[in-house]
Design brief:
Shape: globular
Distance between the termini: 79 Å
Largest sheet: none
Helix content: over 70%
Number of helices: 11
Strand content: under 5%
Radius of gyration: 23 Å
């Protein structure tokens, strides 16, 4: 009996070590895959604060919470099962899906630039809705729809980094990356949208904190504008990079080689400069691709609407 107990304990210990090793594999793969989604994450964090424009400050955090739940639902209930099915039965489809998502990001980025050049202000149209409940429902719905595209791109980019991994590892990494990205992004978004309230509170408290609070309030418009610019740049950079890599996989590697050679020639051994040149190259390709889609959308009947 003691011998059987010892054997059982040995088996349990072996299973525990196996589980720990699997958890380490999942964590390591999640960390590696997560870095590949950085551009999309930046864009997600930059885009979302715009969805609380025109809404009551008291409703900002509840709205962000609704969007967070919608984002988790998008990633874990809809996208994750579909991604695993694709990985198991149609892995060839991942690159085309990535490229379609990349093209959508390029389109979004190019359209934002076009609207900025035309002086359009979407927030003015939003604030014309007088019913607060209807406005909130519209903003939450719009944010979750946009999140669905960005979430799909994040999950497919992650899955693309896991080729050859066991299906359980893929599921664990997708769930971990999806949950971590969602909590991280919308936690930051919640902090951003409440920064002006925090600044006002500090400004009214008096003392040394008051000056910092006033500075925080004054800095908010600039911060939101900067986030919008960063988000647009991230869309073009990530989208263009995905298109370039996808074309290379389909045998058209000239753009990838050209950007790579330019980065090496200009960087002179500096990794930072080489990365910047590569990102600029990807952004230019993304802008060109997005401009073509925007042009096509605006040329079709009723496209400008």
């Amino acid at each position: 009996m003691p011998g059987g107990l010892v054997a059982l304990l040995d088996d349990i210990a072996a299973l525990a070590r196996l589980a720990a090793a699997s958890a380490d594999d999942v964590a390591a793969a999640a960390g590696k895959a997560g870095t590949k989604t950085l551009g999309v994450v930046i864009d997600d964090a930059a885009v979302t604060p715009g969805y609380v424009v025109g809404l009551s400050p008291a409703r900002e955090l509840p709205i962000i919470w609704k969007i967070t739940l919608g984002s988790l639902r998008n990633k874990l209930l809809f996208i994750l099962p579909v991604a695993l099915l694709l990985s198991a039965f149609a892995p060839w489809a991942l690159t085309p899906i990535l490229m379609l998502g990349g093209l959508y990001l390029c389109f979004e980025g190019a359209e934002k630039i076009l609207h900025a050049l035309q002086g359009d202000h979407a927030e003015e149209a939003v604030t014309t809705i007088e019913d607060p409940a209807a406005l909130e429902a519209r903003q939450v719905s719009g944010a979750i729809r946009t999140d669905l595209i960005l979430s799909a791109e994040i999950m497919v980019i992650t899955l693309n980094e896991l080729s050859g991994s066991p299906i359980l590892t893929q599921a664990g990494v997708l769930a971990l990356v999806g949950a971590a990205v969602t909590i991280g992004v919308y936690g930051v978004v919640g902090l951003i949208v409440k920064m002006d309230d925090i600044g006002l509170h500090l400004a009214r408290s008096g003392g040394a904190a008051a000056g910092f609070g006033r500075g925080l309030v004054k800095a908010m418009p600039l911060l939101l504008q900067t986030l919008s610019i960063i988000g647009t740049g991230a869309m073009l950079w990530v989208g263009g990079g995905i298109l370039i890599h996808g074309l290379a996989q389909f045998g058209f590697a000239a753009p990838e080689h050209l950007i790579h050679d330019a980065a090496i020639a200009i960087g002179h051994g500096s990794g930072t400069v080489q990365w910047a040149v590569s990102a600029l190259g990807g952004g230019l390709v993304g802008l060109a691709a997005g401009a073509l889609v925007v042009g096509a959308m605006h040329l079709k009947p009723g496209g400008k609407h």
